Amino acid sequence: MSDRLTQGRSRLETPQSSRFRWNFDVEAVGRVSERVARFLGTGRYLAIQTIFVVVWIALNMTALVGRWDPYPFILLNLAFSTQAAYAAPLILLAQNRQENRDRVSLEEDRARAEQTKADTEFLARELAALRLAVGEVATRDYLRRELDDLRSLLVDEDEDESGSGSGKGRAPRR
After folding, report:
1. pLDDT in tens, 20-54
2. What residue ranges are annotated as transmembrane (predicted)?
3. What angle do CA 109, 38, 36 make, to 5 degrees?
């Protein structure tokens, strides 16, 4: 008897497999739902729907024979309710897919930003090390300043030699 209860419990605990196996591409359904959701948000859709409603009402108000949806337009309301019942989940599905794409994009951007930060910190450390190493080496501006100082000293000495002494200046070399 306990075997029968155990078997019954195990059957109740595990879901039964469905008799109907639906094999469809989830991505294809998602792409179609995104297209439908994008179309539902356009001015073209609003214009088409407005024309459809105006024609529907005009035909049902003016037709002498064959009024399929008289004044309260219950069939038209049913059509709009059915459309809303399908449009809302399609729009939500499209939003969920967009949210997933945004999440993946955000993660990629975050990883790229972390890599860029690490690269920048590495380059900053390398630049600091180069500055320390170059601190001992004479730079172009330093050499230029030193040469200018030497030239001004030589010019000053030359002027001192030509302006002082016996007044004769220097003797020419032979």
Report:
1. 677 878 888 888 888 988 898 889 999 999 999 99
2. 45-65, 71-93
3. 120
